[in-house]
Amino acid sequence: MAHTGDQWGRRSMVLLSFVIFLIAYLGFALSRSAYLISAFFVIYGLYQGISRSVGKALASDLVPPELRATGIGWYSATVGLVQLVASIVAGELWDHIGHAAVFYDGALFAVVCIIGLLV
């Protein structure tokens, strides 16, 4: 059985994950209902499931075969460092502006990533 990323293309799947991320983060920013927030956590989990696996596969596609492990390592290190910075920024936004600002900021970066993949 073929992997969905193989059928639809890895870039398309990463693009889909960013759209899902955007929806989840807008939902977190705008929702006040515990039920809706719970639903957005499920949607966010879908983003995580797609982006973690397909992102690594795409990273391995972008380097020569003999450098695949190195490519995945650099990808993982970069993602980890960016998540660290994003967490620090999120904490500052939460403390100084409010919780919705964190999610609007994430949604904004999702839009930037969507545009970047489309260009």
Itemize the secondary structure elements and their pairings.
Blueprint: H1 4-8, H2 10-30, H3 34-61, H4 68-96, H5 99-118
Description:
With 119 residues, this protein is mostly helical. Helices cover 87% and strands 0% of the residues. It has five helices and no strands. The longest helix has 29 residues, at 68-96. The mean pLDDT is 93.
What distinguishing features does this structure have?
single chain, 119 residues, mainly alpha, 5 helices
Kindly, what is the distance between the CA atoms of the first and last residues, rounded to a whole number of angstroms?
Answer: 31 Å
Mean pLDDT over the residues? 93
Biggest sheet features = none
Helical amount: over 70%
How many beta-strand elements?
Answer: 0
In summary, what is this structure?
The protein has 119 residues and is mostly helical. The protein has five helices and no strands.
